[in-house]
Amino acid sequence: RAHQSLGIFLMSEKNYKQAAEEYETAVKLDPAFMPGWFRIGQVAALSETNDAHGEEALRKYLAYTPNEKESEPPLARAWFWLGRIYENQGHKAEARQMYTTSLKLMPGTKDVTEALKRVS
Question: How confident is the prediction for the chain on average, in pLDDT?
Fold first, then answer.
């Protein structure tokens, strides 16, 4: 959890490379720590690097049921970041599908609505 917290701080500073290293360390220490997999996908989408690994990490997270009591990221956000990876790759149809799924789970989410407009 400490590695994830540091990673979140580093992402806020746009230090994506270092953040990715922290998330990788978190899942190496505990492969069942699912929020770490979510963050690996998120940082891949934001940094526009390591798309394949980011997609794999998000798909792993999407097969999981987040624990709301632990404030784990909702699946809607995983769908959003997966859409962003596809959008970064220029795969608009796939991105649109992911964004649509995200919006169905969390209607009215501003960044998802804007992303959907970009790929429509």
Answer: 96
**Residues ≥6 apart with Cβ < 8 Å to 13:** none
Largest Cα–Cα distance of the chain, in whole Å? 40
Measuring CA to CA, which residue among 60, 58, 46, 59 is closest to residue 88?
A: 46
User: By C-alpha distance, which of 109, 118, 57 is closest to 88?
Assistant: 118
pLDDT of residue 68: 86
Q: Is the dihedral of CA 75, 94, 116, 103 positive or negative?
A: negative
Which tokens sit at 12? 């806020």
Is-contact 34 61, C-beta < 8 A? yes
Average pLDDT over residues 7-15: 93
Q: Give the predicted TM-score (pTM) of the model.
A: 0.93
